[in-house]
Design brief:
This protein is an alpha/beta fold. It has a single domain (2-224), classed as Rossmann fold (3-Layer(aba) Sandwich). The chain contains 8 helices and 10 strands. The chain has helices at residues 46-53, 76-86, 102-112, 117-130, 146-158, 176-191, 203-206, 230-235, and strands spanning 2-13, 20-31, 35-40, 61-66, 69-70, 87-91, 164-168, 195-199, 211-216, 219-223. Strands 6-7-8-3-9-10 form a 6-stranded mixed beta sheet, with helices on both faces. Strands 2-1-4-5 form a 4-stranded antiparallel beta sheet, covered by helices on one side. A hairpin with a 6-residue loop joins strand 1 (2-13) and strand 2. Helix 3 packs across helix 4 (117-130), helix 4 crosses helix 5 (146-158) and helix 5 packs parallel to helix 6 (176-191). It starts with a strand and ends in a 5-residue tail after the last helix.
């Protein structure tokens, strides 16, 4: 079942001859448990797609559905609550708070949502354990490597049962070894049932995805189709 759906979504900035059409009639669905990679040149609309999918911006035209709910029907506070509870973001520059430890960075979204500090930190520690970072929980961001900081950022994005992961060039600042490790962690989150959209310029990393969508000038110009599962081939066989 699709957890994220974009129906004929367009986004225009400016007026008159100064108009910029960042997205034009984009239709996209992402199932729970699946990873979709988005590729395209700079200025093709990739980041705008993520901000609209995550309710940080409203489309000029069209509708976005998250878990079946049209975002246009949510108030500003309702969208903020949806982001806290259901949507995790991962950015190329990590966006970790320098004055907080790895554990505190991961537990903060839970505490902001009203979870008691002790319980939030217990859940956050479990998330860090999933990413092999238990021994780095008390370290501050400037004491962590780039790969460790990105893993902390992903742990923060998936903690608390969030269902949608939106990642904007999460491996762009990493070497190939750490980039692969980050993609493994995102894929593991999908295997636990998350829907994920990852913007990347790296074709090798995009190959990890179930589907790759190509954007050009704000339009989807091509996409790979997911491979058929084994049972689909069995269904095509004649009855014995």
């Amino acid at each position: 079942m699709s957890y994220l759906e974009l129906h004929d979504v367009s986004k225009t900035y400016g007026d008159g001859i100064a108009q910029v059409h960042a997205l034009q009639g984009v239709a996209l669905s992402v199932d729970a448990g699946s990873l979709v990679a988005v590729m395209g040149a700079s200025g093709s609309g990739k980041s705008t797609l993520l901000t609209i999918a995550g309710s940080l911006e409203d489309p000029t035209r069209g509708e976005v559905f998250v878990d079946g709910r049209p975002l246009s029907t949510l108030s500003r506070n309702g969208k903020a609550r949806l982001r806290r509870q259901s949507i995790g973001y991962v950015f190329q520059d990590y966006n970790l708070l320098a004055g907080l430890s790895a554990l505190e960075n991961v537990s903060l979204p839970l505490e902001l949502d009203g979870v008691a500090a002790r319980k939030a930190q217990g859940v956050a520690l479990e998330a860090l354990e999933d990413f092999g970072l238990t021994d780095r929980a008390s370290h501050f961001p400037d004491q962590l490597s780039g790969g460790e900081r990105q893993r902390v950022a992903i742990a923060r994005a998936v903690v608390g049962g969030r269902r949608l992961l939106l990642a904007d060039e999460p491996s762009g600042a990493l070497d190939s070894t750490n980039a692969e490790a980050v993609m493994r962690q995102i894929l593991a989150a999908c295997h636990r049932g998350m829907a994920a959209v990852v913007v990347t310029h790296d074709a090798q990393l995009a190959s990890w995805a179930d589907r790759v969508v190509f954007l050009r000038d704000g339009r989807i110009v091509d996409q790979t189709m997911p491979a058929q599962r084994p049972e689909a081939f069995l269904a095509d066989l004649p009855n014995a």
